[in-house]
Amino acid sequence: MMVYVRFKETQSWENRLPGYLFGIWRFGDYFCFFDSRLSKKQDIGRNWGLGKGSEVERPSEEVAGQVLNTVLDLGINLIDTASAYHASEQRIGKFIAQRRKEYLLASRCGEHSNEPPKALGVGEPCEHTYYDFSYKAVKDSIDQSLSLLKTDCIDLMQIHFGPNPEKVLDDGETVAAMKDAQEEGKIKLLGASTGGDIARRCIASGDFDVMQLDYSLLSRRDEVLVNLCGQQGIGVLIRGGLAYGRLTPRVVPHLNELEPNTRAKITAWLNLVDGDPDLLIALALKFLYRNPNVTSVLAGSKNIEHIKKNIQLLHLSMDESLLEQAIQVG
């Protein structure tokens, strides 16, 4: 779910990114937990998470098409996906390529799907991916993404780092392939989805226009990186802004399953909003947008009504003192 609430222009950006965006792979009922006992993350293109039946299965073609068109109808104007997310790119191309002028498009390279394009969404899908950051693999991946997405240019291409990100940067083949694709007019902006020391290295390199970072009211470790990006004129996409479901109504029946420190913080925040779990979402979003260096917040849902409701919560007026109290919780 994303809306074009606020635009931020930076020195190096060719385009302006919206203040809220839609992550194609996160098609869960609200948002996903990392805790394996709670995980219900979903993808428009692949199965994801634990559970049974429809809880973890990729949405049907019909549902995927409805959600994609609805988010555009709601004014959401940045779609984020990845080559590793199996049928996601194909479904975007199938259902909204004809509306391409209505949205900015972001994808990723380096992690690849094992499902051949012709088999996507057919039969028993393979849920595995593999990493290949070589020049040829990345160039081929970008070309395949263009084909599946049915577009001649992707606005933002991000590195989808794997288990050895240092080597990816040391080798330099991935960045070289992305820059060549940029020179060829196939992509406009370069980005990286990472955090910590690797993010610092990416920021310092001067190669990237956008960084995707994990940041929320619950997890503030990378706040310094968010602010560093702002100082460097680098755009910031936030993933995990709702703490993978922990800052949504889904957390309520599972509070006792969380680790004690996390449970204590969430309980305190719920008390601040009089126990209303919907206002927990509003509180989390207000926290993110109080930081002027945050460009866009990445989230998602396969439930259209939840998407509409969360957009309303984003616009909800909230007392600044309440937010300050929430921040003091830690």
Outline the structure in words:
The protein has about 325 residues and is α/β, with parallel strands linked by helices. The chain contains 11 helices and 10 strands. β7 (about 185-195), α6 (about 195-205) and β8 (about 210-215) form a beta-alpha-beta unit. The model is unreliable at about 1-20, about 20-55 and about 120-125 (pLDDT under 50). The strands form 2 sheets. The chain has an 8-stranded parallel β-barrel, surrounded by 4 helices. Strands 4-5 form a two-stranded antiparallel sheet. The protein has one domain (about 20-330): NADP-dependent oxidoreductase domain (TIM Barrel). Helices cover about 35% and strands about 15% of the residues.
